[in-house]
C-alpha cells in the first residue's frame, strides 16, 4: 500500500513541472487527485494518462469561483478532501524594480500577486470546510526565494516571502483541525512561465541559456533538481501516519542553498 492510500488531494497548477510530478506521485501512493490548471489540453492529456484516479478542472486560481469549482468537482468525484496543495505560480524573469516602468509597476504587482499569493489564499478558503471534516492538511509550494534574495526579481521574491507568513498564520488560525505546511524547492528543470508583458526577454525557466549549469554550480549538491526530486516531501506532509504533528513547517528542497559556496573549495586537511 502507498503512503496516501485512500486519501483525496486537490493540486492547483497541476499540469506542468512540479505540479504534474506531485499529481503523478500522489496517484502512485494511492491517492485520488483533483487537478486545477488553465490549459485544458494538458488537463485532458493528464486524464488520458491517469484515468479515473484524477478529475480535472480548467480554471484561473486568481478567481474565487474557479477555486470553488475545483473543490466541488473533487468532492463530487471522490467524496472528500484530505489535502489541498497550492502550487500554481508565475515567475518574473529576474526583473529588477528599476527595470519596471513606473506606469507598469502597479499592474504587474497586482497580476503576479493575484496568482502567486491571492491564488493560494482563495484555494485555501474554498478548501477549509472540506478539510475540517477530514482533519486534513494544506501544503503550499514556495521557493528558496521565500528565504533568500537573488532567486528571482523583486515581485517574485517579495511574493514568496509573503507566503512564509501566510503559512504560519494559517497554521495558527486553522489548528487543531487542519495542518498547514510548505515545500521550498530550489532551481528546478521546469517550464515555469513568467508574467506576460513584464520582461520582453523572458522565456520559460528551463530555456534560459546556461540555467541548468548555473543552478548546479550554485549549490553544494552540484546538480539542478528534476520536478520529481521534490515530490517525496509533499507525500510526507500529506501523510497522516508520518507527519500528524507537523504544522507551520517549510521543508527546504534546494540542494543546500543556505550553505552554498562562491566557488571550488581548497582540499580539506586531515
Automatic annotation (TrEMBL):
Pfam families: adh_short. Its EC number is 1.3.1.87. The keyword Oxidoreductase applies. Coiled coil: none annotated. It comes from the Bacteria. It is an enzyme of class 1 (oxidoreductase). This is 3-(Cis-5,6-dihydroxycyclohexa-1, 3-dien-1-yl)propanoate dehydrogenase.
